[in-house]
Amino acid sequence: MTYTPPKILTFEEFIAQYGDNNRYELIDGELRDMEPTGPHEAVAGSIAGRIYVQIFNENFNWLVPKTCLIKPPAAEATALRPDVIVLDKIELSKEPLWQKQPVICNGSTIKLVAEVVSTNWQDDYARKVEEYAFLNIPEYWIVDFRGLGGWQFIGNPKQPTFTACHLVNGVYEQQQYRLGDTIYSYLFPNLKLKLDDIMPN
């Protein structure tokens, strides 16, 4: 049996072949299938909707795009596709690719990212924690509604967990919430949210 290494793609090749396909993202040249399921998309949509209501109510000059890629400046062949992202409208004018493609290159444009955990949970709990902190994204939510993450991330026994990461001096301080807990957001202090509210039926 022979081992076939994964095909390595450049950022440009990924954009040309998969840029408009929400199923894939690129990490260090490797194509990653995000395996979105119906419940996964329902959770992401519920989060996006609740955030949009807060943006509207607080009159923030932010937006929640339907699709978006993040191209970390330090990673050549990486294009991250967050499940939910909040962008600063004013900062969008400084984005070099935005007018032609929904690609963000500057961390200063991003206010918040939320990832809904699927089977590739290692990316959400490890790689993306580092990438998003390096980009200085103020808040990162890891929504593990099925309790898929490793024990070192969500504890034992595994259970649905919402991890809110708040950037402090370039490093994320993490606070975990379980079912029944009221989640606190620094960006949206008036947000009334529990993990129970966004669990799929």
Question: In short, what is this structure?
Answer:
The protein has 201 residues and is α+β, with helices and mostly antiparallel strands. The chain is built from 5 helices and 10 strands; from the N terminus they run αββαβββββαβαββα.
Overall, the morphology is globular
SSE topology string: HEEHEEEEEHEHEEH
Class per helix and strand makeup = alpha+beta
Report how far the terminal alpha carbons are from each other: 43 Å
How are the strands ordered across the major sheet?
A: 3-5-7-8-9-10
- Return the domain count: 1
**Main sheet properties:** 6 strands, mixed
The CATH H-level homologous superfamily: tt1808, chain A
CATH topology: tt1808, chain A
Helical segment tally? Answer: 5
Strands, total number: 10
For the CA atoms, what is the radius of gyration?
A: 17 Å
| Average pLDDT, all residues | 92
Q: Which stretches are low in confidence, meaning pLDDT under 50 for 5 or more residues running?
A: none
Q: What's the architecture, going by CATH? A: Alpha-Beta Complex
CATH class: Alpha Beta
Helix content: 25-40%
The percent range for strand residues is 15-25%
What does this structure look like?
The chain has five helices and ten strands; from the N terminus they run αββαβββββαβαββα. The strands form three sheets. It has a six-stranded mixed beta sheet. The model has no long low-confidence stretch (mean pLDDT 92). The chain has helices at residues 11-18, 38-58, 121-134, 151-154, 195-198; strands spanning 24-27, 30-33, 62-63, 69-70, 84-88, 103-104, 110-116, 139-144, 161-168, 171-177. The longest helix is centred in the first third of the chain and has 21 residues, at 38-58. The protein is α+β, with helices and mostly antiparallel strands and 201 residues long.
